[in-house]
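Posting this for the archive.
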Amino acid sequence: MTSDAIRPTMQTVAVLRSDDFVVTEGVADGEGISFADELVMDDIYQLSSRATRSPLSLAIRDEGGGFMIDEISTIGKAGNLAFLDSCITLMASDSTTYEVLVLVEVEDGGLEATYLLPLANLESDTNYRLVGVDKDAATTRFAEVACVSFTRGTHITMASGEQRRIEDLAVGDKVLTRDDGPQAVRWIGQTTLRALGEFAPIVITKGALHNENDLLVSPDHRLFVYQRQDRLGAGRSEVLVKVRHLINGDTVYQRDGGFVDYFQLLFDDHQIIYAEGIAAESLLIDPLTRAALPDHMRSGETRRSSHGHRAHLDYEVQEKLLSQKDAIGLLRKASST
């Protein structure tokens, strides 16, 4: 992997405020969710019917840990630090369990605010009992959210032109990349998760971007599109777009429910590869996603540092440019005319 200097990695997550999730029965009755040391097991919480998620934009800090709230964030104070506090487990009355990450915002060394990042959708006016608090799992779970993943059955274009299902790939196999030609796979990750909330895959239906089959990827997966005409108004031909920003409820939608098998492909450098004919990114190792690697790849001489900067990362477009009507349709036309 390269050792080039890297700009801070950005991650935007949709969070709830602490007073959106309040104890309705228990020791902390009437209080909003708090950090781990103040939580009381078996307290019962409810989500306010007025609760709405707000985008919290974070710049990942490699030194000192934690994040810095970015100026584009719609919640929190720009420049303040934010830290992952814990991963809590909640149980509904039907015994279904839900995981929620707790983040804290710090200003001048003091607690400024507490936020919740539910990893599955919570319903208002429903009782959720606190049954678990894990301070160690938060970093790994957050890394899993940030890792870009393909689902089982996805066809990957090999160096030979063969279309091979991702679950049939092996370390050392050579995959066709946009920038560097044939490149060997260095590691293949696999996780099976409940397809809920932040872990529910995004479906790009057949033909939406000239793809032969449906493409299912994780919500923060980025696609590379070459516009023959700049229909998106990006000011350039090459654009990198997050699939969650392309959801229109029709040709691109989030499939919630059941379980999903996710696969991550790692190369020596961050690459643009081809999945179901669509140019899509491989796993990017940075201070955030590094926690999702197995122990033997994060320790000793085999520890992997962050990937070096690649030119295609400069092509990412912000959500506001994709909020126009039928962004996916515009990209489809732009890439074919």
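The CA atoms of residues 203 and 216 lie 5 Å apart. Confidence is low (pLDDT under 50) at residues 1-7.
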